[in-house]
Design a protein that fits this description.
- By secondary structure, this protein is of the alpha/beta class.
- It folds into three domains: 112 residues, Translation factors (Elongation Factor Tu (Ef-tu), domain 3); 127 residues, Rossmann fold; 81 residues, Beta-grasp domain (Ubiquitin-like (UB roll)), CATH 3.10.20.30.
- 22% of the residues lie in helices and 25% in strands.
- Strands 4-3-6-1-2-5 form a six-stranded antiparallel sheet, covered by helices on one side.
- Helix 4 links the parallel strand 7 and strand 8.
- The chain is globular and about 65 Å long.
- Bound molecules: flavin-adenine dinucleotide.
- The site of flavin-adenine dinucleotide (FAD) has 28 residues, from strand 4, strand 5 and helix 3.
Amino acid sequence: MTASTLISYISLALGLQFLLVLAYALLRRRSLAPLPATAAKLPSLQPGAWSGLRAFRVARRVYEDAAQTQCSFYLEPVDGLALADYRPGQFLTFSLQPGAQAGAAARTVTRCYSLSDSPQPQQYRVTIKRVAAPAVPPGLPAGVASNYFHEHVRAGDTLQLRAPSGHFYLDTDSLTPVVLVAGGIGITPMLSMLRWCLQKQPQRVVHLYYGVRNSAEQAYKAELEEMAASLPPICLHVVYSKPLAQDRQGVDFQHRGHVDLALLQSTLARGEQQFYVCGPSAMMENLVPGLAQWGVASKDIHFEAFGPATVRLSPDASLPVAGDAQALPVAVTFRRSGRTLNWQGHQSSLLDFAEAHGIPVESGCRSGGCGSCVASVVSGAVDYASAPDFDLAPGQCLLCVGKPREALVLDL
Ligand SMILES: Cc1cc2nc3c(=O)[nH]c(=O)nc-3n(C[C@H](O)[C@H](O)[C@H](O)COP(=O)(O)OP(=O)(O)OC[C@H]3O[C@@H](n4cnc5c(N)ncnc54)[C@H](O)[C@@H]3O)c2cc1C
């Protein structure tokens, strides 16, 4: 072999090595792609968060209750790249087109679902409760997204997701005993917190209060009972309001009735504790202010509503919130729609106000969490009764929980 041939081989080998390193670096970059400047600052997003939508495949689905009203969906990224991290308690936002299934015009529906497992390297899990049509009042439809999931979403299907986000998450830096309080499907973020504690902080004391009607509706029954029996045990308080004939107190459930302040006071020795609460509005309205009255500091009361927020953690909740106190009417201009309308304070939010006047706005959770109704403020200012869950970039507002503070021009 001549010297020049040898040099050619070495150059070729070095070139190939360089290409391999470059390809690896590019792949890594895609998996941890830097977010746009605004999103990169958002504190609720975790390492690896992507911006916009990302395709996930349903790996499998599993019913979690005997009545088959709560179904878990395991999701894996179609691109095969790394998942974004998340904090136990955070949620995913789904962009769905349920109508496409029936061949109807595909309206986009945005919904949030809490991650119901502790962070796993390969997949996310959400658990979705089917929302049936209410018997009273008659005529109202069944839930669009939850029924779409239950009836149509199967293993192998692809769904579009925003990165995990949300401000309702476990304080993972603390070893303070934690009291998780769930009602119905509000168990999902609690299960994520619970599993995380068992794996990462086995010395931390964890109480779980979980209220459902009976064993048919209890999700994760075997899993919870196993956790209560394992070491270290969790302090499990399952509460049935309408036990079935076969449900045994002390075996299937610990308490009869509802999860309320009276139950906590009679079963929990108060000390330094962090409370996390998620459940139906009746439970939240009792517990969240109740805990504050019981002497729990507001920094130790964390709560999330799975719908329009009904409770506020403020001793002054009866006082008018910002945005109620301004001189009415206030002019609100929807610039792209070419409409200027008078805000009279009748609607609870700018989203309701826009919809009442036929101005189309995309919306999702309607509670300040998912960011679907973000709008750019051209001039003026927007007030919120409490800080929205969604991290807003400068110059943006959230219509579903915002009210105009003054004359407002929106880029809508
Ligand atoms: C942060 C967050 C996390 C969440 N996590 C979970 C979770 O882990 N699991 C879970 O199951 N859910 C969760 N949710 C709730 C979830 O996002 C959806 O709200 C829920 O699945 C219902 O959506 P849907 O489309 O099925 O019902 P929708 O179609 O939104 O209907 C909801 C209700 O409104 C009624 N309704 C519909 N139209 C009208 C009308 N015109 N007038 C009056 N009433 C009407 C329906 O009958 C139904 O009872 C979460 C929500 C948030 C905000």
